[in-house]
Write a structure and sequence with these properties.
The structure holds two protein chains of two kinds. Chain A is flat. By secondary structure, chain A is an all-alpha fold. Chain A has helices at 7-28, 43-64, 79-98, 101-115, 121-142. Chain B is mainly alpha-helical. The N and C termini of chain B lie far apart (59 Å). Classes of the chains: A mainly alpha, B mainly alpha. At the A-B interface, helix 1, helix 2, helix 3, helix 4 and helix 5 of A face helix 8, strand 2, helix 9, helix 17 and helix 18 of B.
Chain lengths: 156, 498
């Protein structure tokens, strides 16, 4: 009754193995001074890296031998919806350094809302502007978080 | 009696107008994030971490404590009216609570949840008040080796005991430990895991990882399943008063839930889920009407709701007395201590006595505020639940952006948050638990510190962890936590075959 391994599960397990190897490499390049040779800065990274390697290899074996145990077959992702949210996140990163936080928030808000099925982009953009402004004022004034100076933020 | 004097000193600090305002803001925000599905107290506290640069430590922790307790109250509203648990700790509430709501008894379900939360929260806070100083006395006798072994128990408990698979949990724990290593080693000054990047010398910001995992990952996960539809919101039905019969059936469940929740929360076995499951099981066993369970038995709401609030107070016990967080929110609060330069651990009660006691006092105050917020004002939260999903998730991502970008105005931070978010989405898809990552990342550096201190004392002899008796007992408990479940399963399987 061994099922065929599912490619996406194997890929995720491989990603974890790769992360473990990456951290093993980084552990090896930590310079060790002879004074600390015994319980120096590398002891803990070794434990953590080897630990991740062992368990990610177990996961890889599980994935190859018919799938991760106790996992329902995940349904195909909704790429349309994910695409809209992804586009919003990308626009956010681009706009935040150029036009400033509030414009970035408008783009992010409108795209995300669209991804979750909203069909009124203009209204969403308006709500996004209000949410962005309120969040900006709240965090900048009350919490003292500096969220950069954009076109609009400079005026406030 | 000394405890009472310290507690009244705490009340004096907590009752100043400014701190009452912080407590109220915390309770309000906490209930809101508890009500809103998909976000929780961990995200809220992570987003509020910058406040540590602005206000005194006591006010910040009063705020955080309010958020923490508030989410436990708010989560039940969502479970009852939407059947989507607002919090992982209210999954069980959804079982009976949603059934009650479907039968037009949403009011009594909400009432027993809120009053039960209040009763349990208050009793458990009392237990915290009187047991914490005792635990501190004991904790002061522990050396670094014992501390390290105690942290091993906490690590094992959050990764191997909870969740569906010990392998997946432990893999995530080690990943979290690795994230905690990034940055300059505090003892030798050597950069570790920085890939030569200056931005990584200070380590990875907790806020960025927490917001990535709790806001971005959640939103991406829900987007990836968007086409599979939404849940329906049930109307608020039935009187908010408990009938005599409801009350008679509830009060014993509240007390039992409290006595299950507090100890289970206090031992470093992590989280509020376990006690709610246990309480539900006990109520079903003890009920004279077990056939009602699954069809809206009020005890099935009263018990678990009391248990999750009591365990919330319980979790604060190891957090405040040992510096040992066993839930994600507690871990993020611990990083707030560090942001104030306060060393968490048993010395906290001596060095920061005023801070600790005003926080504990604010828990009593918060419970009263929350009872008012969640019963007479329940209509407000029902309206919050009506926020349409598209706009809700848009807003969550905007706040997430502030959390990450506000740290240093760096697009790299934003990119790290996105990367963590995508990884977190995959974790959800393949059912990997999130808590071990966050707890490993925050507790890892402290564990390493104890580990190296112990190794220095023993002059590099690793057997010290096993030859010191208390440490050996702790490690044996940790080993039992890992080995017992598969062994029990194997024995059961063998019996079935025989």
């Amino acid at each position: 009754m061994r099922a065929r391994p599912r490619r996406d599960e194997v890929a995720f397990a491989l990603l974890l193995v790769a992360l473990a190897l990456l951290s093993l490499w980084q552990t090896l390049v930590i310079p060790v001074s002879p004074i600390y040779a015994r319980v120096g800065p590398t002891a803990f990274p070794w434990i953590a890296s080897v630990g991740l390697l062992v368990f990610s290899l177990v996961l890889l074996v599980q994935a190859l031998r018919g799938g991760l145990p106790g996992l329902e077959r995940p349904r195909a992702p909704d790429w349309r919806s994910l695409g809209w949210v992804g586009a919003g996140l990308a626009a956010n990163a681009v706009l935040i350094t150029t036009l400033g936080f509030v414009f970035a928030a408008v783009a992010l808000f409108a795209c995300t809302a669209r991804g979750f099925g909203s069909t009124r982009p203009l209204r969403d953009a308006l709500i996004g502007a209000v949410v962005g402004l309120a969040a900006f004022l709240g965090f900048a004034r009350l919490l003292g978080v500096n969220i950069g100076a954009g076109v609009l933020e400079g005026l406030l | 009696m000394e405890t009472l004097a310290l507690l009244s000193g705490g009340f004096a600090t907590a009752l100043t107008p400014q701190n009452l305002l912080f407590a109220f803001a915390g309770c309000f925000l906490g209930t809101a994030v508890g009500v809103l599905p998909g976000i929780g107290p961990a995200l809220a506290v992570a987003l509020l971490l910058p406040i540590t640069f602005k206000v005194p430590a006591a006010s910040a922790f009063i705020l955080f404590a309010g958020v923490y307790y508030g989410a436990m109250y708010g989560g039940s509203t969502t479970s009852i009216l939407l059947n989507t648990p607002g919090e992982s700790a209210t999954i069980i509430t959804a079982l009976e609570g949603f059934q009650m709501a479907k039968r037009g008894r949403a009011g009594p379900a909400l009432a027993t949840a809120a009053i039960g939360s209040f009763v349990a929260g208050t009793i458990a806070t009392g237990a915290l008040t009187f047991f914490a100083p005792v635990v501190v006395e004991l904790a002061l006798k522990l050396g670094p080796a014992e501390y390290f072994s105690l942290m091993v128990i906490a690590f094992v408990a959050v990764s191997a005991v909870l969740g569906s698979s010990a392998v997946r949990g432990l893999a995530m724990l080690f990943l979290g430990l690795l994230l905690g290593i990034v940055g300059v080693d505090l003892q030798t000054g050597q950069p570790r895991f920085t890939f030569g990047l200056i931005e990584l010398l200070d380590g990875i910001e907790v806020t960025i990882v927490a917001v990535g995992l709790f806001a971005v990952a959640e939103t991406l996960h829900l987007a990836s399943r968007h086409r599979y539809g939404e849940d329906e919101l049930l109307p608020l039905s039935g009187s908010l008063w408990l009938t005599r019969e409801d009350f008679a059936r509830s009060w014993k469940a509240w007390l039992r839930g409290t006595f299950i929740g507090f100890p289970l929360g206090a031992i470093p076995a992590g989280g509020a889920e376990l006690p709610t499951f246990f309480s539900y099981y006990v109520e079903r066993r003890l009920s004279p009407r077990p056939e009602e369970f699954g069809r809206g038995a009020i005890e099935g709401v009263a018990g678990p709701e009391a248990a999750n609030n009591a365990s919330a107070a319980g979790v604060l016990m190891p957090m405040l007395t040992l510096g040992l967080p066993t839930s994600v929110t507690a871990a993020i609060m611990l990083s707030a201590f560090q942001s104030y330069g306060i060393q968490p651990g048993p010395l906290l009660f001596q060095n920061q006595s005023d801070l600790v006691w005003s926080m504990i006092a604010s828990l009593y105050i918060g419970n009263v505020m929350l009872l008012v917020l969640n019963l007479p004002l329940i209509g407000l939260w029902v309206r919050v639940l009506r926020i349409p999903r598209p706009q809700l998730y848009g807003g969550i991502l905007v706040f997430a952006t502030i959390g990450a970008y506000g740290v240093a105005n760096s697009v790299i931070d934003l990119a790290v948050m996105y990367a963590v978010g995508v990884f977190g989405m995959l974790m959800k898809r393949y059912d990997f638990p999130v808590a071990p990552v966050v707890i490993g990342m925050i507790l890892g550096p402290l564990a390493e510190q104890s580990f190296r201190q112990a190794m220095t004392i023993s002059q590099g002899d690793a057997t010290a962890f096993l030859t010191r008796p208390i440490s050996a007992v702790f490690l044996a408990i940790a080993a039992a936590l890992i080995l017992a479940p598969p062994l029990i399963r194997a024995v059961q399987a063998a019996r079935r075959r025989a």
